[in-house]
Amino acid sequence: MRFSILFLLATALPVFHLIAQGDPEINLFEISFVEYAEDIELTPDQLDELAALQSGYLADTRELDSDVYRGSEIPEAFQGIAQDYRQRIRAKLTDEQFERLYEIWLTAEIDRAQAHFMVQGLEIELNREQAIEVIRLSQKPVDENFDATLLAILDEEQAVKYQRFKDRGFTNDDEYIDKRRQSLEDGIAVFQIINETYINGLREIRTRLQPYLSAVDSRNLATLRRLRNQQADHIVQMLEEEMRANNEAPKDLMDAALGAISYTFLQFPQDYSEEFPAPEMPQIDWDTAMVQSLVNRHRETLAPFELFIYEVTDDTRRTMMQFFETVDEAQGLDVEDEIGGMFLWPKDSLSAAFIEVFLLMEPLDLEGDMGNSDHQNPFGLTAYPSPARTTQTIEFQLPTEGQIVLEIIDQGGKILNTLQRGRLPAGEHRFDTDVSQLPDGIHFYRLTHPGGVSSLPIVVER
Fold this sequence. Notes:
About 50% of the residues lie in helices and about 10% in strands. It is of the alpha+beta class. It folds into two domains: about 1-360, no CATH class; about 365-460, Macroglobulin (MG2) domain (Immunoglobulin-like).
């Protein structure tokens, strides 16, 4: 996946790094069968079975220790798992379905390979045969022969252009500087879409989930999050050193780019060790059993929030597609593969791997905004009389049925009392609450529902 980031930041020619050998081979583990369902006439049962196999593959390969990755080495255990799942997924498709799927996939891969070589400053037109050779090369481990093999695919004029592009780096040529600046600005814009639309959208939903977690689970998740952030800090440092060493762009743009990708990696705490299999990647004391326990325990807790997660994912894809359609430098980049493969989870399922990342995301600090009159109150939460002495009546309206948590918290966010916890139907609701045990001063009601979070100040005065 490092290829995607460096390409979008325009720091070098794409460095291909997949693992297959031989002829171009479709990646049955990551391909979106939902996207191709109509074209190859998949049945609903086939879709369910294929999704289950893909989730199983991700779960099994995640068990492997990423320490064994060194350069072009591929763990034997990984090869065995990959071969097993490849055969099982292939067996779910008829010959006709697979042939049609392969045809569509190969055409898209050829278009993508040709587009990669038409970036500004390179502009090499690959023919179909060359594009297929490039795809074959992209499915082999990167080694010291990579450049020589690539140059052998190109004709003499193309090889000269490629070598010039690779060696040129950041120059004082005004036209070239402008192109590099624009390309880097486009890369930054993509990460901003990821951060603002996808990651912040998920964090807002993750915040709604927080009241449903126990204090122990919250502490364990915070500890695990810090471990993942150690990886993220290391990756950002690697990218910064590489960009600054190559003097790839003006300092202001490099700072902006590093700021955007730093937020992305820190706030989307998935395991990046396989994407960046560097020997110097920090080793973390990861508690796999604890993570699996958290995921299994909160799978049902997350169910009411699935629709909102899908909406955020779809909104991000639409926004990114609109951006890619308007930027010449980005033409040919595939949203699903280049960006989606690393950050956007499949829009039709929440796997155990996604639930892990989602639980590890840092909730927003809503309590810090509670004194702001513009703080969101989507459920019309009201309370009277105010100030309150001994009792108070609370009213609110839910747009849909769902699990709710109604709490009283202090100004620091500490839970003072949980008033209601359970499933309520859509419509208006009213509760009487005892505030006689609360100290005088300002506190807050907090109502959490899969559709949002409402908060309301409560003044206790005697």
